[in-house]
């Protein structure tokens, strides 16, 4: 198993009352798997994704990825690990507003700058242009994100997530701001990534998006259940 | 894709933030350089003002020096003229000589060895000059049936310890005779004429003009001949001398000195009234000298006053810069820090995604500090360049003196090593100021929790 979470818990202490966002969550995802996690708003989906994405340390439990324990690494080592192994796609795209589409796609190479597996900048550029081509953005390479449509922005974010050829994509409601056509395009790209041997963890409350996955697990109040729960939330 | 590319794109995107930051740094750098130039200009203005004042006082002193020299020359001239007219004015006589005899008869009876003159000359005597041993006796000129004063004289005895001076009186050669006015008038004598005097032949060599003194009834002949004729071989009646120009009670000084060398002699001074005139001239010279000294003092006082007022002005400017400079630096640092903080707040989302993409903490720091350093470099260089110009301007506004207003950026200011150091160091200071002021904001950016940002939308 490429990713393994073992009895991972996380409680937020920011507000007046502590909010338990993850309660002893255990899951395993291997390469070639496309897993969707569904659940109502506030059930802990994003928390789970960030914990799996090495960005949010759990209070307890074990996180193992590609045989390594990222939360036992130094901050810098974890950042490099993240930059090399993981790709993120968010509902809000999170493109850097002042960089061109091409530079946004190339931004992940910054993380490689000092790692041993540094890529040739020309290779990165070629791969970036190939990805833009693939996502139908070749003629928008020089534009800034503000001039793109939502669909184009999310395709740009997809291209960015794929640049460093990660092992796993973590997608948080990637189709939430998209029309069905663009949503299908993004889901198709995720599917293709899995076909090529990657792993995808998609969190969503969208029925349609979840349908693209091989497996759908359910989350409710921080508790993950891997058995189908057809009766409660089927409506979109 | 590099961090510097990221920095430049962001600057181009949010120009105002960067320009304001550059402006704040530039103002700080400008203030440092301008303050330094103002202080240096002050020093240069002071140097010029002092040089001007110095040459003014020097000119005034020069004028006084000329006056003193003129007074001195006058005095010297007067003394020379008087000495020439009066001849010797110090008379050294044997102690036993009754001075009344000299005054009543114009002649002397007591004698002393001629060698006394040599003894004086060999001593280190300071108060008199020009020693002349003489015999001086009232005699009857039998051939002419008249009474005259016979004056036997010879060349001066040179003083050993002095440079040889031009003799005041020329010696009378043996066989020659110098004749006083009353006598040559009465006898109708001519120069070159042969006369017989006490059975000896003499040639008249000089006829004196009227002097209105005993000189008018005197004949001068060689000392040796006179001694023979009077039976006074190797004896003299008096040694004549010329007193030095000394201040104070000169006759007392002369007496003291001579009595030490030649005991058994007395000293009298003649013509002291005429010397009073020389004294008056001495006084005039002294007055001129005093006024020169006063001028010097006044000049020094003026220079000192000017220097004090310039120093006060310079100190005032230094104090002003000591207040303004830290204030400006503080405000600039605050402005740069605030702008950096605003920038970080703006870029939260960007920081979150860059962290998600794998950027390390240090790289985030570099993004923000690199930008700050760049604003420091640009602001520093711009500030230095503008500071050079405004330093002269501010200097003119602060110091309205004519020299200051006309003083540009002179060689002396521009090429001073101190200013060079300031110009070199200020951009570095500017970079340090910008970087340190942005440090808190950059550290905040680097320590932002990406998870919080990515979640909190
Ligand atoms: N920083 C925080 N401090 C306190 N509580 C938080 C914090 N972040 C999230 N929570 C709470 O934790 C719970 C889980 O949040 P999370 O963002 O994981 O939910 P979600 O399933 O992603 O919701 P949504 O579908 O609306 O995105 C929520 O109740 C949320 O209010
Ligand atoms: Mg969420």
Q: Overview of this structure, please?
A:
The complex is a heterodimer of chains A (236) and B (457). Chain A is α/β, with parallel strands linked by helices. Chain A has eight helices and nine strands. Chain A has helices at residues 45-52, 75-85, 101-106, 109-112, 121-134, 150-162, 180-195, 207-211, and strands at 3-12, 19-29, 34-38, 60-65, 86-90, 168-172, 199-204, 215-220, 223-225. In chain A, helix 7 links the parallel strand 6 and strand 7 (199-204). The relative contact order of chain A is 0.20. Chain B is built from 15 helices and eleven strands. Helix content of chain B is 64%, strand content 14%. Chain B starts with a helix and ends with a helix. Chain B has helices at 3-13, 15-86, 99-105, 115-122, 181-187, 223-230, 250-261, 272-346, 348-356, 361-398, 402-406, 411-414, 417-437, 439-446, 450-455, and strands at 90-94, 112-113, 128-141, 146-153, 176-179, 194-197, 200-207, 218-222, 235-236, 238-243, 265-269. Chain B has two domains: 3-66 and 290-454, no CATH class; 88-270, no CATH class. At the A-B interface, helix 1, helix 2 and helix 4 of A face helix 1, helix 9, helix 10 and helix 15 of B. The structure holds adenosine-5'-triphosphate (ATP) and magnesium ion. Residues 12, 14-15, 19, 21, 39, 41-47, 205 of chain A line the site of adenosine-5'-triphosphate.
